Amino acid sequence: MIIAPSLLAANFGRFAHEAARAHRSGAEWLHLDIMDGNFVPNISFGPEVVRAVRPYFKRILDVHLMCSNPEILLEPFARAGANTMTVHAELGADVVTPLLWKIKSLGKGVGLAVNPPTNVAELKPFLDKIDLLLVMTVNPGFGGQVFIEECIPKIQQAAAWKRELGLKYRIEVDGGINETTAVECARVGADTFVAGTALFSKRNLGAAVKRLRHLTQRAAPGI
Is the Cβ–Cβ distance between 195 and 6 less than 8 Å? Predict the structure, then answer.
């Protein structure tokens, strides 16, 4: 199981400190939500924030591009130190296909995300081209939202396809993830958990990460 604290819930005045705290916690990934004010109704980080936290978080920087024109951002984020980059299925197949190839050509992990209203079947043509399938469990744009239970079947379907097709992509969930909802997602096949408030709000981030990992490992199918 991979635990990925979300920088969106961190102290914006202390990004370096918060990234270092996430590193000390033992979290495998640090998740960065990139919002452009167009694809979603909010604005968050640019490549310079990734560059700023790169020296303080030595593991995987997981960049989620909630943007209408991610093609102009892939190279800047790659240069800044991103390890994985995720784009959205909602951009349309004609746009998504070259984006995935571009991310791969940059030597980065290839991610594809799906929003709650979108049919998960739209992801199926791309499954053999991705390293990460992100199921959004809230409507993206703001942190601190309530988990949407109706997204559970999407996680189940993603896990079923992974087994049936013999693929190795990770199944990531993001939105309203806490100890309770993470366990629900782990039970149906999620293996990568983005949590913001549920982690960064804790004084002892390391203990919170360790507990979330333990709970999800126990809940995983076959364990």
Answer: yes
